[in-house]
Structure prediction request, 399 residues.
Amino acid sequence: MKITDLKCAIIGGQPTIRLATNEGLSGYGQIEWFKPFIKSHVLLLKEKVVGEDPRNVEQVMLKIRSWGGFKPWGSAVSGIEMALWDLAGKAAGLPLYRLLGGKIRDRVRVYVSGSRSDLHTSYEITPDKISKHLEAAVADSAGFSIIKYGIGFHSPMPFELAGFFMGDARPGPPHLNQGMLTEQGFQHCLNCVEAMVDTLDGKAHLALDCGPGWALSDAIRFGRALEKYPILWLEDLLTGDRSSHVGVAEYKELTQATTTPIHTGEQIYLRQGFRDLIANRAIRIIGPDPMDVGGLAELKWIAEYAQLFGVQIAPHGVFNGVLGMAAMVQVSATLPDNLIAFEYCKPPTEWWPDIVDGMPDNLVVDGHIEVWDSPGIGATLNEEKTKPYLQPEDQDFFN
Ligand SMILES: [Mg+2]
Prediction:
């Protein structure tokens, strides 16, 4: 089997990769849906994969892995890796989990960021509004057992609350802001967490997405102040989402200073990027995103390495789309017992699930997704149903 073409279309905002072969099979990969600009990066790699046998996944990856980097530049390589595994599975007539060593669980726990219906960026910033938002998330029929909420520099607090921190708020994504909190800002964060804990009242576990951007001293104080609460993790306090580096020494100091579990890693590319964080036990929980870290097999390798050091894993993936979610189920079924849960992937549009074949209708039940047995990533694009949604420049996506 040979790869004959590589295509990338922006479907409902979601960059979607198709690898075509000389045997008529197609393999699909996806990239976070706020990264349409990655399309040109994906297409740069076409000449490197055409002519290769997609079933030799690693052999192809050796040709393209150096073309990736920290988020967002790991996306193209990661999305192509997903499409290679999809083809390898389809060619063998086996679900991907069988190719990755077999499953060790029949259902996989997922966590939800904010709530299923709201975008993860629409975080509320006052205790009463947060409580209302969380009540809706808890009432969701999917029964999510872990809910993650944004706070501090991972929320609009820096520019919507006057005097929140010592700097002047920059407009744009909250990630652009960083610095020491004022006492008022720090207490506001504590008040919000107290409201979250009261609202959840033990009905779901609480994780907090915090930054990056906290001063190390504030991060230590925050972790310690929350030790009285059942917080599952504090994510990206120091570096993380959109950082171009890993603060291993800083994370080690933070992790050792508090019993509240510290989490990071969604921006990191490749196992090498995680090595020092894990081997130094600088972190309690890692959150690689398979569509940024270098792919599904890369995620599995990192999970196994982390387990050697007593580090847990809760993979990121909120924007990875419907096909991305199918792939997450497949790889998560094979991860060792340090897996906590992976992040539920919110479809970029309401109709996206309708153009995909092979997925169960009622995907999340009791906060878990049952592992199903379709070849490859377990789902595939329905050509006829997808065509109406192709943009003019992507009309040749299935050709
Ligand atoms: Mg995050």
